[in-house]
């Protein structure tokens, strides 16, 4: 555990079973020095305990754009984690599709060259779609740290939160 502040982490969550454990990642990241702000796809909010996440993070959970002309309620991002990441988000992000707040922020983070760690949660049939593999390759080429190990962590599992945090800290050095 680190007492040193590391920066502002935008933690993005997609609609997949591990979203139900999002509250397990937030305290780990905070104890390690990250100020955590949580983004969710609109569908992911149905998997998450929003009041608990807001209490743990100290920030409102966001899934919608802010009103134009209003001040941002979050501090400026310095790193990103997306876990779990779905097929839909993987392929849209790789294509530069920013049709929701989460994708918009991921596209922006990639353009800013931020350290980004992604942990897909994709079941077998979806993982064999050709767009998934191509999207992972492109995102890796763009510097995204992909943690995807379906042999050891088949969907609905993802790599452990501790491994995600470790890779984030390595990427942010």
Automatic annotation (TrEMBL):
One of its GO terms (molecular function) is catalytic activity. InterPro entries: Flavin_trans-like (IPR036551), Flavoprotein (IPR003382). Residues 12-121 form the Flavoprotein domain. This is Flavoprotein. It comes from Ktedonobacter racemifer DSM 44963.
């Amino acid at each position: 555990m680190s007492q040193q502040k590391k920066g502002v982490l935008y933690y993005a969550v997609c609609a997949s079973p591990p979203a139900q454990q999002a509250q397990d990642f937030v305290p780990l990241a905070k104890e390690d020095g990250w100020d955590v702000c949580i983004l969710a796809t609109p569908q992911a909010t149905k998997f998450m305990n929003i009041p608990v996440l807001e209490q743990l993070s100290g920030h409102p959970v966001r899934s919608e754009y802010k009103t134009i002309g209003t001040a941002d309620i979050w501090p400026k991002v310095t790193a990103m984690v997306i876990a779990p990441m779905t097929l839909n988000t993987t392929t849209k992000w790789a294509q530069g599709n920013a049709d929701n707040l989460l994708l918009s922020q991921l596209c922006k983070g990639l353009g800013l060259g931020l350290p980004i760690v992604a942990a897909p949660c994709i079941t077998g049939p979806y993982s064999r779609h050709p767009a998934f593999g191509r999207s992972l390759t492109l995102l890796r080429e763009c510097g995204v740290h992909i943690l995807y190990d379906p042999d050891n962590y088949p969907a609905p599992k993802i790599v452990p939160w501790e491994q995600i945090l470790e890779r984030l800290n390595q990427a942010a050095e």
